[in-house]
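Hi P.,

Sorry for the delay on this. The queue was packed all week, but I finally got your sequence through. Input first:
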Amino acid sequence: MLYRERWENIEEQILSDRACRSKNSLGRVRAEEPCEIRTAFQRDRDRIVHAKSFRRLKHKTQVFISPGGDHFRTRLTHTLEVSQIARTIARSLCLNEDLVEAIALGHDLGHTPFGHAGESVLADLLTGGFKHNEQSLRIVEVLENNGRGLNLTVEVRDGILNHTGPDLPMTLEGQIVKIADRIAYVNHDIDDALRANIITIEEIPQGCLAILGSSHSARIDTMVRNMIETSQGEGQIQMSEMVGGAMNDLRTYLFNHVYVGSSAKTEDVKVRRLLMELFQHYLDNPDEMPAEYRGPEETKERRVTDYISGMSDSYATQIYMSLFIPTGYPLKG
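Then the structure:
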């Protein structure tokens, strides 16, 4: 018996009837021979981890642009926190942990440099707008692997696309990631904002803390336990009204006091100018982009967006400096 088939049999024995089993996947756009060792969702997870876009996440902003310490989250550490939270919930509900992990690891591949500030700029510049979840899907379907994409399963692609926005993912595993993403960023953004002295613990809505807990770990534990207890045996992943409401109130607080107008966002005006000037430069000089972004199959505007959105913070800054900042003439003697 192949190792993959052995694990598929284990899934039959241990997973809930509501779980998405690997052998029942709706498949891929391009048919492939199954791997002898890994299930379809394990294979998707590995393809994402080995993708260039995944490696770039370590140099992309979560909330704080170029923070002065090593302990602030990046887009990569956020992704890993989402994955761990989601896997814990999936395991407790006897759902497919491999599917959850693949979706979680791929959900933010399409984020721009400089976090939501960068996304806002590209949304203004690209005709039809820009959304990071749609770009994440575009990366795994089109841009990775020299334009061939990663050829992921339907279930993983659906979870990546619908991890944010009004539509529910088609699987319970995807629904777990959708809420785990919010659990992760609400809690770690509070943690980072406290570290940066942008807010104090006394300023956080005390009613929310009374429900969820006064520490970072206590709040995550409360939310995860509540998701498991409320979703057990149900056809949808959810939180109780009380805990979910408290989490949403904290999210609103973060938008009002951290994400918009705080000292954490003072660099946003520089980000806007940097990305707008890069965008216009490559519109005017498309031949300066790497060959993979020069193809005629897309509009020039779309190709420039793909190139810039894939940049890390450091690479975008480096390119901007090389294009627009004089370096001086090296004198001899």
